[in-house]
Amino acid sequence: MTAKVKYDDVEVGTEIPAQTYKVDRANLVMYAGASGDFNPIHWRESFAKSVGLPDVIAHGMFTMAQAGRFVTDWAGDPGAVLDYGVRFSSPVVVPDEGGATLEISGTVEEKLDDGKVVVALTAKSSDQTVLRRAKAVVRLA
User: Would you state the pLDDT for residue 3?
Assistant: First the structure.
């Protein structure tokens, strides 16, 4: 595969439209099974509250994966992502009723040589930034 977005079609400041991802407890249980992370703060409300959390929270790596999905969906090729990193700043709280939403947007922050761009990502849930310093280096067509 090759990225669908063309290097010549983006400039520093190009905004990638926000996408909203629904997060519910079933997503967390499936992620726990796939990752092997069965910490009860991610699925048992009473335990999460007993350790001072407001409710069950999403796995940090699940949140990071959704931001990665945002980048690969934009680029059109998962192999186009050459580097990706984030810092976790706030948890995504996932109530039993209604779940949570994760809104992710991006901006081309820098154009590099060889068809590569740096994309700065913003990830929010309940008006709180949940990822900081979230950036991906992507090779475009």
Answer: 87
